[in-house]
Amino acid sequence: MSPHLHPLFRLHEDLQAARNRDPAARSSVEVGLGYPGVHAIWAYRLTHSMWRHPGLRLPARLLSQLTRAATGIEIHPGATIGRRLVIDHGMGVVIGETAVVGDDVLIFHGTTLGGKSMTHGKRHPTVGNNVVIGAGAKVLGPVWIGDGAQIGANAVVVHDVPAGAIAVGVPAQIRYRPASGASFAEVDDPAIYI
Questions:
Q1: CB 47 within 8 A of CB 12
Q2: How far is CA 193 from CA 152, 157, 187, in A?
Q3: Burial category of 180 from C-beta neighbours within 10 Å (exposed 0-12, middle 13-18, buried 19 and up)
Q4: I need a labelling partner for 157 at 20 to 30 A (CA). Which of 68, 111, 112, 126 fits?
Q5: Quick check: 45 and 116 in contact, CB under 8 A?
Q6: Contact between residue 15 and residue 29 where contact means Cβ atoms under 8 Å apart
Q7: For residue range 17-66, what is the model confidence (pLDDT) as tens digits?
Q8: Cα separations (Å) of 194 from 39, 153, 176, 191?
């Protein structure tokens, strides 16, 4: 088994990702003991491995619900989550069963990766790599969020968002970084922060 696939490596990687992305984090011990986003991701990693065995699906769901009660974060064990997901603050985050989340994604509190229908099959979003989803955003249905996209706080996304785009508002409208190559931090749009 590759060392990068070993479960303990993944747990350490999740811990380090949270520490690296949160300027308020003072130590790995603080993050490991006190960050509900990290706890929820660790529990998801366990419940997801259980979910792959049909006889363990009920215990996986029950454990995921206990984690929700403890952290305020609900991640369905059937979701597919990549490496180094960071859930900052966490309270109120919901990630549905058929959601797919890429690597190096940052999600803030109150975010929903949810469905628009109650039918079987793919009904939740697919989020690419290096995506940031702002506080309170709702990304609904089997939409695609491209690599490097930014979803503004409280945006409601029901259509695909191209790679590198910024989606803000209700319903979300697509904006792009200035052609000058300005960074995300230099984009002057208050809707990204509220």
A1: no
A2: 7, 16, 11
A3: exposed
A4: 68
A5: no
A6: no
A7: 999 988 888 999 999 999 999 999 999 999 999 999 999 999 999 999 99
A8: 26, 5, 18, 5
